[in-house]
Amino acid sequence: MSTPGAPRFTPDWLALRESADAAARAPELLGPLRAYLATVPRGTEPLVIRDLGCGTGSLGRWLAGRLRGPQHWILHDRDPELLARAGAGMPGTAADGSPVTVETWEGDLTGLRAADLAGTSLVTASALLDLLTFDEVDGLAAACVEAGCPALLTLSVVGKVELTPADPLDVEVAAAFDAHQRRRASGRRLLGPDAVTVTTDAFERRGAVVRSRPSPWRLGADQAALTAEWLQGWVTAAFDQRPDLALQGDTYLRGRLDACAAGELRVLVHHRDLLALPGLSADDSP
After folding, report:
1. How many Cα atoms are found within 13 Å in the side-chain-facing hemisphere of 14?
2. 3-class SS shares of the chain: helix, strand, coil, % to 5
3. Rounded mean pLDDT of 217-242?
4. Which of 152, 211, 215, 157 is nearest to 25 (CA)?
């Protein structure tokens, strides 16, 4: 992620969540995306795909092998360590064996405009929208639509978490976490769980067709390490937002972590994936 004041995500955390991300992403959006890309004439030129806030490149590793034809990926992030890992970890071939090439771009992605997307076939991002502001999402939608560039935007939180077995404190912790997601960071008010609604509106106001599908994390005993790491981050953010919860929250967290270690905790973290297709009416969309 490459916006001012954004948190730095460690390679270890991104590696821990990659398999859950891959399992969660909505494959139903790939059919319409492939159909749209097939309508855009480009001769023998490769698809040019810009992955915004690429992290270690997990979305590229998931998507490149699911698209046909030669591809050139431009990986955007502000973190040079993550960029180096992303560039080195991308697959070398597409679904049909065509070559996949990669370049990296270090810097702030929020200033991208339509002119910067000239020649771009697709914009992608994963777990990014909730870390942006209203103006940043609006600017991204404007740039994509003006450039005639589709966007596949995955794994945005929607403010719904389900834990099994339930605990009476779950609802308060979840509400505090959502409020923390909407906080001001370095003078920026983040969208948090409102990002999907805001992004959909931003694209649709400009005439794009937006398709949306659920992409939940399903965490259980087979992903205990990820579940424990997510749980600690979730509860810590809630405590930051509401320090009064910490008095009973320490006991809550210990109990949840014990259940996780025992293989008894199940967590459903709801996300949604969006596919925005510019320049189409709803009747014409693939």
Report:
1. 22
2. 45, 25, 30
3. 95
4. 215
